[in-house]
Amino acid sequence: MLLLERHGLSSRIVVDLAISLPALFAGSALGILAFRNINEAGFRRTILVLLLISGASLALA
Predict the structure, then answer these.
(1) 49, 56 in Cβ contact below 8 A?
(2) CA-based Rg of the chain, rounded to a whole angstrom?
(3) pTM for the complete prediction?
(4) Which of 9, 19, 20, 42 would staple 38 via disulfide (CB 3.0–4.6 Å)?
(5) Domain coordinates in residue numbering, the chain
(6) Pick from 34, 32, 28: which is nearest to 46 by CA?
(7) Exposed e or buried b for every residue in 16-37, given b needs 16+ CB within 10 A?
């Protein structure tokens, strides 16, 4: 809120935020559905694999 009041937030950041919000909500909804539909061990394994892929892609970039 302070950045908005002091006009420290550029318009580019606001646009990027608006673009990323649908992906954030979609990912949250998919995570909730996956958590409800698979057992705890399967969910944990899936999350760990996704984290491994994400970390590997960052390390290789």
Answers:
(1) no
(2) 17
(3) 0.56
(4) 42
(5) 2-60
(6) 34
(7) eeeeeeeeeeeeeeeeeeeeee
Q: Tell me, what amino acid is at 51?
A: L
Between CA 56 and CA 61, with CA 59 as vertex, the angle to 5 degrees is 105
The conformation of residue 18, written as its DSSP 8-state character, comes to: H
Residue 12: helix, strand or coil by DSSP? helix
Q: Are 43 and 34 in contact (CB under 8 A)?
A: yes
For 29-55, what is each residue's pLDDT tens digit? 998 988 888 888 988 998 899 999 999
Residues sharing a CB contact under 8 Å with residue 8, sequence separation 6 or more, in sequence order: 2
Residue found under tokens 């002091």: 6
